[in-house]
Every structure is written in C-alpha cells, then in structure tokens.
Amino acid sequence: MEQSLEVRVLSRPQIMIGIFDSGSGGLTVLRAIREVLPSCDVLYFGDIQNAPYGSKSSEELSLLTTKALIFLKERGAQRIVSACNSVSASLALSLFDVFDLDSTQVIEMIGPTVAYFKGFSGRVLLCATPATVRSNSYQNAFRMIGKDITTISISELAGAIEFGQSESDIEEIITNAFENVVWQEGDVLVLACTHYPLVLSLFRKIIPPFVLIFDPAEAVAERVKKQFWPQEVRDGTTHFVISKDSEQFRTLVSKIFSDINYEIEVLALPLVH
Ligand code: DGL
Fold first, then answer.
1. Cα 29 vs. chain centroid, distance in angstroms?
2. What is the reported pTM?
3. Whether the Cβ atoms of residue 54 and residue 129 lie closer than 8 Å to each other
4. Closest ligand 1 atom to Cα of 53
5. Neighbour order of strands in the sheet with 79-82
C-alpha cells in the first residue's frame, strides 16, 4: 500500500517555478506565492547588476529578459513568473516560442491584475516605472475591460528602494510623484511596480486614507496557484540567485522569509547579444 503511494508521488510531474525581477521587487510576489503554494520549488533570479529596469528601453529589457529566461530554463525551471511589471509590459509573445514555453507556462503581472478589476466602477490610478507606463500595456489592458486609467510614472523610486536610500528620500520621491493628484473618495491606487509594496507604509503615510492601495501580488499568486497546481508539489525549496551581491537584498530576504530555509547565490550572467 505504502509502496504504491510512493510510486504515485514519484511519477507525478514535478516542476520548478522560475521567478525573476530586477532585484528585490519580485520578493513581494514570491511572498504571496509562498502563502498559497508552500510546497513549490522556486528559483528566484534578481538582476541587481542591471537594476533598475524601469528606466530601460524595451530593447534593453528584451535582452535582459532573454538572459534571465535562458538562465532559469537551464537551471530547470519549467514555469516562469515575471515578477516585474517593467518586464511584463515589454514581454513579447514571440519570446515564449523561442524558449519552448506556451502561454500557460508563463505568468506576468498585467493580466491577473487587470482581470481583478472587471466590473469595478471606481476610478483607478496606477503608479509604475517609466518603462511600464510608456509601454501602454496596462492602459490597453484596462481599456479591454472598459476602463480608462490615470497613470503616474515614478522614475527614481524602484532604484531608491533597491539600493536602500533613506526613508526620508523615498518619502520625498513619493510625495513629489503625487503632488498634482486630486484624490476622490473610492479611488484605487494600483502599485504596478513590485518594488513599491516594500515601502507600503510610506505610501500609506502620503495617500489619503479613503484611497484603497492595491498590491497585485495576491492576484498574481492566485493565478499561479490556479494555473500551476497540482504540479507544484515538491519539497518547497527556495533558491535565490542575484547577479550582484547586495546586503540590502540579503537583509530583506532574511526578514520576509525568516521561517523558511533558502540559499542565496551570487552569479553574474553573461550578456546576450
Ligand atoms: N520591480 C520591477 C517592476 O515591477 C522593476 C523596477 C525597476 O527595476 O525599475 O517594474
């Protein structure tokens, strides 16, 4: 009896999820994924050497995405989560073909986020990096559900968070970004950069209390669970690879994932041309 159970468990398809971001932002998505899928094996790539991504052109982002996908696939990831809005906004469907991935094997930030707002009648404001706003991906996706949104592009914020600038500097960046916004009762502010929830308390300090702040991480994690289950069952290992060592990253990981075992590896990836 026990043996047949063992055979069944071993023969179940086992997958590893590859998650990537420019650095620490994707940790907010991984945190949400760990809540719903504690037993999936995860390989997380944070490209700190090339951060921030949000000020890069779509051509540069395509190269960096290609590099990250090659790496994650080589290391055995069969499912991919783009835990970076700037990358998600510039993801070309053709990339999936090149990497033998189909759309069911890749989850990005925009689809699950926008789907969450179907039927919502209030005003949506969305703050993100210049790369995300410039791509128009969110604006177009929201239009498909009949919604026009207001976007606020914040150029220095993700980098300031990634490289550990002081709280007062970060607060000033957020304050300046919203100085011209006239808030209304019932507004929702979408944090469409995965770095931003890391300073949620500073957003909360500046944005009026009657505005709801939406972190897409949960919606993305729910999508991961729905789409990748039940193949996620493994040992629940967590392996981080960063392209440049960072005390800031190590400290954040130890705070967010204090209750799980993990490894951090530093590895500069070769450039792809
Ligand atoms: N966290 C990423 C995003 O969601 C990248 C931010 C950056 O590196 O500029 O857009």
1. 5
2. 0.93
3. yes
4. 8
5. 106-107, 79-82, 16-21, 41-46, 238-242, 263-266
Question: Distance (Å, rounded) from C-alpha 161 to C-alpha 195?
Answer: 7
Q: Which of 68, 157, 177, 193 is catalytic?
A: 193
Q: What is the DSSP string of 106-170?
A: EE-SHHHHHHTTTT--S-EEEEE-HHHHHHTHHHHHHHHTT---EEEE-SSHHHHHHTT--HHHH
Walk me through the domains of the chain, giving residue ranges and CATH numbers. Answer: 2-109+219-266 (3.40.50.1860), 111-215 (3.40.50.1860)
- Provide the H-helix boundaries in the chain: 2-11, 26-36, 58-74, 85-90, 93-98, 110-115, 130-135, 137-144, 157-162, 167-177, 200-206, 217-228, 247-256
Nearest alpha-carbon partner for 177 in 198, 202, 142: 202
Q: How far is the CA of 230 from the centre of ligand 1 (A)?
A: 29
2: amino acid identity, one letter? E
Q: Which atom of ligand 1 is nearest to the CA of 89?
A: 10
Determine the residue type at 145: I
What is the distance between the alpha carbons of residues 171 and 92, in angstroms, rounded to a whole number? 34
Q: What sign does the CA torsion over 25, 94, 100, 144 have?
A: positive
Residue 127 bears catalytic tag: no
Catalytic residue among 84, 149, 157, 177: 84
Residue 1 has pLDDT above 50, yes or no: no
- The C-alpha atoms of residue 147 and residue 138 are separated, in whole angstroms, by 10
- Residue 216 Cβ inside 6 Å of ligand 1? The answer reads no
Contact 19, 29 (CB under 8 A): yes
Kindly report, residue by residue over 112-168, the tens digit of the pLDDT. Answer: 999 999 999 999 999 999 999 999 999 999 999 999 999 999 999 999 999 999 999
Report d(CA 42, CA 210) in Å as an integer: 37
